[in-house]
Amino acid sequence: MFIPWRSSTLKFSSHVPCHRAFTTTTPRPLMATAGFTETQLTVRDAVKQVCAAFPPTYWRENDQLAQDPAEFHAALAKDGWLGIALPEDLGGAGLGVSEATIMMQTITESGAGMAGAQSIHANVYATQPLARFGTEAQLQETIPGIIKGETRICFGVTEPDAGLDTLSLSMVAKRTADGGYKVTGKKIWITCAQVAKKMVLLARTTPREEGRKASEGLSLFCIDLDRGHPGLEMRRIQKMGGRAVDANEVFFDEYPIPGDSLIGEEGKGFKVILHGMNAERCLLAGEALGLGYAALGKAAKYAKERVVFGRPIGMNQGVSHPLADAYMKLEAAKLATYHAARLYDASREDKSIRMDEVGVACNSAKYLAAEAAFTACERAVLAHGGMGYAVEYDVERWFRECLVPRIAPVSREMILNYVSEKVLELPRSY
């Protein structure tokens, strides 16, 4: 398989330029790309080519029909993109979160929106704890299939009675005589559960009152989803945006899983998933940025073409100034996002980088990018006037989807709490 970003095999065709020359025919990209590495820009160019085969009409139809974008997932898998941040010896590219983030941004920015990103989101970040803490058998059984697109995966953490309070999870995984477990409980907002073959699942193996710390007693598993088993039930949630990708309630009732599905040590699952949380903040930030740039680009184009009272509406400062302000907010959030991603990647080797620094950077990036995307998407709808409400102009779809980065995987308010406590050293409020 040709991996376009590997330095040992970089062979650029005419449609994947290694250097960018000024021309009068190619429009200037909305996002400034100065400061990105050659590898990041190569990823961006190559992913953009894959996305070009899936125009807005594809995403509109899938959104309206609530239909999984299986063809898009398969196209990314074909070129090896699902393994961008996974080890090379398992078939991945062995790149970092910085490259994965620009890939996710490129997907949303192409017009695919959050639906396009969410169709592969778990494949990119939920596999990180598995790749780091999984046994050799688990890795060989799972990772190659994910990279090839043969195995879809979902992430089972959130519960209806716990929400963001992960340490209050009540799903139970009880040991059985044969060394396995039986899982009982409910998960909610599980993306792609309808199409996934496997789930990375967080469950309680020790009652909370028996643990020395609140973070102890939770264990992480990589399990098969046997939809024919009476102990497993899924219910799809009808939602506002990103309808092409399913979200679900998942019910387990004495559902059996083997002992070797445990990832890492029993009772240490919370520490294991923390490895993937900061990475996910970066990915969500990138996805939000792409959504914002897509909406802003569409609004600017419309403002140049739409003529009212004998002049383009973009000549009116009441239209142009809000869009210019939205652009600057996106650019600022972009700097925060890729600073956080670089810091995350560097922390793997540079032990002088503190984990709390990484956490603050990643949470801040996610917050700023989500807010910037919301501003851009809202103003894009308003710039279109009545047509902003029309499906064919896409901005209404992106506006519906831009709420996701503000809510998930952690709310704005919890990020503000985190920064208040960790940076400003203010008393904890929860």
Automatic annotation (TrEMBL):
Keywords linked to the UniProt accession: FAD, Flavoprotein, Oxidoreductase
Domain Acyl-CoA dehydrogenase/oxidase C-terminal, chain residue ranges per copy: 267-422
Cofactor annotation: FAD
Domain of life of the source: Eukaryota
InterPro entries for this protein: Acyl-CoA_Oxase/DH_mid-dom, Acyl-CoA_Oxase/DH_mid-dom_sf, AcylCo_DH-like_C, AcylCo_DH/oxidase_C, AcylCoA_DH/ox_N, AcylCoA_DH/ox_N_sf, AcylCoA_DH/oxidase_NM_dom_sf
UniProt key word Oxidoreductase: yes
Annotated Acyl-CoA dehydrogenase/oxidase N-terminal domain residues: 37-150
Gene Ontology MF terms: acyl-CoA dehydrogenase activity; flavin adenine dinucleotide binding
Pfam entry (one): Acyl-CoA_dh_M
Domain Acyl-CoA oxidase/dehydrogenase middle: 154-254
UniProt KW Flavoprotein keyword: yes
Stated family: Belongs to the acyl-CoA dehydrogenase family.
Protein name in UniProt: Acyl-CoA dehydrogenase/oxidase
